[in-house]
User: Fold this.
Amino acid sequence: MKPLTHEEKHAQCMKEIKATLIVALLTCAWECIWAFALNGTGLMFLGIPAWVSVSVFGSIIIAIGGCIFLLKKVFVDFDYDDEFEEGGQ
Assistant:
């Protein structure tokens, strides 16, 4: 585990929150854009409308890829409870 000061821990938490929010917004944007773009075209894929296939399956792939990216590049393993134990609380 990486030893961090209280300020560094807070900054890391904020970085993780922002990165996770970006991945969630990208996933939501993908789903909404393709759902509206392909709705009404009459295209079918695997027996269901293309807008469902592209938006849902695409968002699943983006979400999984985003989680992998977050785990490898953004998240840092540290113990957030250390300072509370040291303070006697």
About this structure: The longest strand covers residues 44-45. The first helix runs from residue 6 to 38.
